[in-house]
Specification:
Layout lengths: L6 E6 L9 E2 L4 E6 L3 E3 L3 E9 L4 E10 L4 E8 L20 E8 L11 E10 L3 E15 L4 E2 L2 E3 L1 E6 L7 E4 L2 E7 L5 E9 L6 E6 L4 E4 L2 E3 L2 E8 L10 E11 L2 E11 L12 E5 L4 E3 L3 E8 L4 E4 L2 E3 L6 E7 L3 E10 L5 E10 L6 E3 L5 E2 L4 E7 L4 E4 L2 E4 L5 E6 L4 E10 L5 E10 L2 E9 L4 E4 L2 E4 L5 E3 L2 E5 H7 L3 E5 L4 E5 L4 E5 L4 E4 L2 E4 L5 E3 L2 E5 H8 L3 E5 L4 E9 L2
Parallel strand pairs: 2-11, 3-12, 4-13, 15-22, 24-30, 32-38
Antiparallel strand pairs: 1-8, 3-5, 5-9, 6-8, 6-10, 7-9, 10-13, 14-16, 16-20, 17-19, 17-21, 18-20, 21-22, 23-25, 25-28, 26-27, 26-29, 29-30, 31-33, 33-36, 34-35, 34-37, 37-38, 39-40, 39-52, 40-41, 42-43, 43-50, 44-45, 45-46, 46-47, 47-48, 49-50, 51-52
């Protein structure tokens, strides 16, 4: 049964003050600025979030900020108040430095969302520069449906407001370049990035203080520029086996920066055989793929002879290479052999696994008709595989087991899961289920007592349940009509007909003969009339006719009858 509800959301400067019993601490409220640092006059967006609220129907709190640093501008509601509700919103910024948020369901029965949600986004404008201005949550009040107060933990934050820059400011990265070991006559170039972090319009000139260090460009006008620094040790004039360093000074209208350049000058070896360099870009070591043909990419020194799995392969003029290779199912070892004209050899091995087998996907069948929403489906797949459903991937645990939850709509729903293993192979499972919602009614009665309850509502019986000759008898009209069944009395035949959702029975006063769905039955005890009320055997009316579950409390002599109906 759908109940109408209204979600009342009010942002104002007045707090709702309430008191009462306080339960244990549950849930959390957090302040999350989108940026921790903004410039003066820029907009700051602050995300107010909640999580793990349990049985909370009403919530209020204050967002406290420094009015001299920030100015509250406007707000936007988040997913916290979305759904089948009619939001009512009002804002009053009468008290500077405080924004009060109040969220509640006025029916006092419907709880607020418990999962991580954005309650609202508050928009501020930076007014005055401040190194660290706190944004806090205070005066939190949370109420459960039972009118109990709940303590919520809070997580505050802060923002820094800075002044807008008035002139350029130069930075350089990295500040140190190590050119490694070099020989006289070598040449090596590395780059550094010059960046303006102040006002636009950086103009700069670069100068090097050593003859073996040069920079390009020397002059530039740009707020971001990559400069090339080249070390070219001369063949004479520098001592070998020694470390050298020099600076490149960058002068600008935004200050001065420098790059320290270092290298170690080695003595040139005579007839030294240096093995060639070889770098494998693709595939990576340990790669798992479902493609039987892969592309091998890499780099070596120009002029080197290259073999891959003992087969000669060509390289480009610059030493790069790219070739296709067929894989076998399972583990493949790809061996690289590079040799230069000096006889230097370099060998490398990369292992790649070809896996074209689709992962196993076994899902516990939920049946064709389900009654729970959302529906939880469990299954097992290949360890390490990922289960995709909708846009939500779920990583299977080490033993491959997983559990997913499907939100359903009334009627027919198509469920779909895709298992993807580490190689990218996929296995799909689909299932159509019909969601049939159900409603449960519970009737409680006591032997010899006129008091009874229907779904927790107290009523009084003209004739209570009774035990006669070891058999329990119930007032047929009260039980049947409370459980949504129709009762008809035939005075001529002194019979009672009960028409239930699924079964129909006929009993006759003082007779053990009865009919259930037209079939003749023999009762253990005959119905009888007491004070104008017909009493019939408990199990025949409650269980056989109305499909109810019967509970018995011998200490209280209480009878509980629970019936579940499908909601059409």
């Amino acid at each position: 049964m759908m109940r109408n509800k209204i979600l009342s959301v009010i942002v104002c400067s007045m707090m709702i003050i309430s008191a009462g019993y306080v339960s244990s601490s549950e849930g959390e409220l957090t302040v999350e600025p989108v940026l921790k640092k903004i410039m003066k006059n820029d907009t700051l967006r602050v995300d107010i979030r909640s999580r793990d609220l349990k049985d909370v129907y009403a919530l209020s709190f204050e967002i406290v900020y420094e009015a001299k640093v920030l100015k509250f501008n406007d707000y936007e509601w988040g997913s916290f108040i979305e759904g089948e509700v009619e939001p009512v919103a009002e804002i009053n910024n009468a008290k500077s430095g405080t924004v009060t948020v109040t969220v509640s369901h006025i029916d006092k029965k419907t709880t607020l969302p418990s999962e991580l949600k954005t309650i609202c986004m508050l928009n501020f404008v930076g007014l005055t520069p401040s190194e660290k201005s706190d944004i806090k949550i205070e005066k939190v009040i949370a109420k459960t449906k039972g009118f109990e107060s709940v303590e919520l933990t809070t997580k505050d934050s802060y923002v820094e407001v800075v002044s807008s820059p008035t002139k350029p400011k130069i930075t350089v990265s990295p500040e140190t370049l190590d050119f490694g070991s070099m020989y006289p006559g070598d040449s090596k170039t590395l780059t550094a990035k010059v960046k303006n972090i102040g006002k636009e319009g950086l103009k700069a000139t670069a100068e090097c203080n050593s003859s073996w260090l040069s920079v390009d460009p020397v002059n530039f006008t740009a707020d971001e520029k990559e400069i090339s620094l080249t070390v070219n040790p001369p063949t004479e004039g520098l001592r070998v086996n020694k470390n050298y360093k020099s600076r490149c000074e960058i002068y600008s209208n935004g200050g001065t920066a420098e790059v320290l350049c270092t290298f170690y000058l080695m003595e040139k070896a005579v007839e030294e055989v240096i093995p060639p360099d070889i770098t494998i870009d693709e595939p990576k070591e340990g790669m798992i793929t479902n493609q039987s043909t892969i592309t091998i990419k890499g780099r070596t020194n120009p002029g080197v002879s290259l073999k891959i799995n003992r087969m000669p392969r060509e390289i480009a003029v610059d030493g790069s290479f790219e070739h296709e290779l067929m894989l076998n199912e399972g583990l493949n070892k790809i061996e690289f052999y590079a040799k230069n004209d000096k006889g230097g050899v370099t060998e490398k091995t990369v292992q790649v696994t070809l896996d074209t087998v689709k992962p196993v996907l076994s899902v516990t069948d939920p049946g064709d008709v389900v009654h729970k929403n959302p529906l939880v489906v469990n299954g097992i797949t290949e360890p390490g595989a990922t289960i995709k459903y909708g846009s939500k991937p779920v990583k299977a645990v080490d033993d491959g087991k997983f559990s997913v939850s499907f939100p359903l709509k009334s009627g027919t729903n198509t469920l779909s899961l895709v298992a993807v293993d580490t190689a990218g192979n996929e296995t799909t499972w689909t299932k159509e289920v019909e969601l049939v919602l159900q409603e449960t009614i519970k009737v409680s009665m006591w032997i010899g007592q006129p008091e009874a309850y229907v779904d927790g509502v107290r009523v009084y019986l003209q004739v209570p349940p009774t035990i006669k000759n070891g058999r329990t008898f119930l007032p047929v009209r009260f039980v049947s009509e409370s459980l949504r069944s129709e009762v008809k009395w035939d005075g001529d035949t002194r019979s009672v007909t009960v028409v239930g959702p699924e079964h129909t029975c006929i009993v006759m006063i003082d007779s053990t003969t009865a009919f259930l769905d037209g079939q003749l039955l023999k009762l253990d005890a005959a119905p009888f009339i007491q004070n104008s009320t017909t009493l019939v055997p408990l199990r025949f009316i409650a269980q056989d006719t109305l499909n109810g579950e019967i509970g018995w409390d011998g200490d209280e002599k209480r009878i509980d009858i629970t019936v579940t109906y499908d909601i059409n």
